[in-house]
Amino acid sequence: MKLHQLQNLICEHKYTKDIVYRPLCRSDAFFLYQAATSTPEFNRYLLWNTPENLSEVLIQIDKLLRQTQLDQSYSFSLTDRATGSWLGFTVLKPYRDGIEMSSYIHPQYWNHGIVVTSGKGMVQCLFDHQDAPIYSRTLKENAPMVHIYNAYGFVPDAPDVAYHATKGKYNLLVFRLDKAAWPGYDGIFDF
């Protein structure tokens, strides 16, 4: 799956009742820095080192933006539609025979339903534009995400390994969602 096949998805802002999905940009660095320095758990699941300053976050954002230019990944910022608050971001990239979706929510909004709401919207948007399966990976101990994947209808797939330059090897659980198993949320987006 090449992301350029999703050109209508990745070039536009999308709106649900509560969330705006828009392309990640360099001006999101401050908000990402706040999230990344607020708790070590955020970076643990992101598999980044805790940034020491804003410049390190800009390097990561520039890397994500370069990956978009090379059709290797695409990153959305998630903002609250009512307040404009930055909630987190989602990265899409080709994976196995489909697309991997990874979401990172600012810790300030954990346990507020943002992962569920933003995830449902992103899955619906992906399936509105393509038929390939959607994958998500997480650490085994990230029980809240495992629960959410199960609730969405994701099923376990073959596990995977990720490598981090300073933290070493991570064993990851992989979940797969096929379009036929998705109940659908038609009308979730305002166009």
Structure description:
The chain is α+β, with helices and mostly antiparallel strands and 191 residues long. It has a domain at 3-133: Gcn5-related N-acetyltransferase (GNAT) (Aminopeptidase, 3-Layer(aba) Sandwich). The protein contains 6 helices and 8 strands, in the order H-E-E-H-H-H-E-E-E-H-E-H-E-E. It has helices spanning 7-10, 29-38, 40-46, 54-69, 114-129, 143-152; strands at residues 14-15, 19-23, 74-80, 86-95, 98-105, 134-139, 155-164, 168-177. It has an 8-stranded mixed β-sheet, with helices on both faces.
Task: State the main characteristics.
single chain, 191 residues, alpha+beta, Aminopeptidase, 6 helices, globular
Q: Supply the number of helical segments.
A: 6
How large is the share of residues in beta strands?
25-35%
Total beta strand runs: 8
Please list the strands of the largest sheet in the order they lie side by side. Answer: 1-2-3-4-5-6-8-7
Kindly provide the radius of gyration, computed on alpha-carbon positions and rounded to a whole number of angstroms. Answer: 16 Å
Q: Which bin fits the share of residues in helices?
A: 25-40%
Secondary-structure element series: HEEHHHEEEHEHEE
